[in-house]
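Question (not urgent): is this output format expected?
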Amino acid sequence: MRVLLVALNAKFVHTNLALRYLREGISPVYPDVLLREFSINDHLDRIASEIYEAKADVIGFSCYIWNLKEIVALIRQLRPVCPNVRFVLGGPEVSFEAEEFLHEHPEVDALVVGEGETTFLELLQTWQNGSDLSHVPGIVWRKDGKILVNPSPLKPMSLNDLPFPYVQDEDFTARIVYVETTRGCPFNCQYCLSSTFRGVRFLEPERFRRIFRQLLKNGARTIKFVDRTFNANKLHALKILDIVREESQIQPDAQRIRVHCEMAGDLFDAEWLDYFQNYPQGLIQLEIGVQSTHQPTLKIVSRLQYFEEWKKFVPELQSFGIPLHLDLIAGLPEENWIDFRTSFNDVYGVNPDMLQLGFLKVLKGSGLRLQRLSYGLLFTPDPPYTILETKVLSHSEILKLHRMEDVLDKYYNSGKFSTALREVLKLFPTPFDFYCEFAEFWQEKGWFQRQWQGKALFDKLWEFLQKIYASETKEGLDVALKNRISDALRFDYYRWERPHSIPDYLQPEYGLEWEEKADQWKTMQETIRKSAYWETVIPGVKGMDRRQWVRNTAVTCFTSDLFQVEESNQPCWYLFLYQPGNVKAYRYEGS
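Got this back:
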């Protein structure tokens, strides 16, 4: 029997962990097993042709909210030309309302509900033997025109009984690979499928070491833990991170390795801070789901946490060189526009490295889907079931938040406008007000209708600022602040990449004295390059010849030092050093 396992990932760089478990689980019995990974951005005709030409007897798909529509389209296309193939679907998107799904999709033979590592093998063996499927736990299947639902296994399987998913040699260079050391979650969040089962199961740390070592051997450098709450058990989490450090440090390119973990902010404490203080910088990146700071909403979704209490850990973690992603969910029950504005400002105020503004997905099987009428939850009928409206948040308001999310990603999460945003926000009551107003300006201009490259984003922000400057409410705007905003925009422009020219609106206006000084600076480039000052500031400056210096540096003057604690109107010079994947700015302290 030939078995083909198919993944349709959200992006090419992603990989599928679940199918690798299945492959290794069935390969001792069915060695003729193939695994093919595609992206939902690939042409379905090409995917269908590759699947057809594999000539498999059984084809299994891993189903999620981001790929179910494409998978159904593929099976409908393949069924007429593959009449004898058995199509099996598994994954979270078909594990709930499974009987209804099979009614609606007669071209599918069976569904594997819940964990499939043992169920899938039993299903294959039963099919091959021609036996009755009624004894295979955790499947939904067809018999004599009827749809039958078999009970799930009585006992969840131990993670330590799972096969190693990464035994085979694969090239994971430039890919994102996934690992798990826990299943389950200590919390009971009603928007999450982890609330549908109780308890947390743990993988033995030394079994994880073998998996992690194999991933590094195969070129993986970006590894994400799919653990719902990585720090659910402190002792376990610390052992896993010890292994990550030990195995990474023996790699010649250890500085390129990064692991990503989702943690709960309210489970941090002083011991965690002590641990991370000595952890290698750049090795770990943390994602924390805040979701909301509106306590009535958090109570409804069964995830009470107190952001005001644990936010103190954010700057300390960042000071250790740990990038932090904080998440918000728009459209949760009983959180209206004003409440969400507060949540946004609360989280923005701690300056996370990334602020992910997500939208509630009313998932099959989740508590909120069962309570949708109580809270007036309207959502898209097809995956990913994104919220459209709630009892307290209108569809128009949600559309505004979607536009705001787009602008937030372009400007804040890109990290390219950090200096400018710090100054621009002084014009607005709160960060939320700026992003909302800026997003509506984009909407008025029709800018969301096309993709804008790199530095065009500066033009958009500048045009918006001209509108703000001209508005009646900003008539008394401080000239010094306008100058600082212009300086900040130009600073970020230089940080983007070495400019061959800069837009007219970013040209500095210093007056005759500073124009003469700028000319002097240009004529003194060679002298400055050789000065002892730069040798103490820039490593490797001695190794640069004149051509390399000119190609890799840029110099400009600002009306004031943007990074002084006390604002000053005294002009200053900055030198920008451009190296592959890195731009550094240095304030010139010479005369």
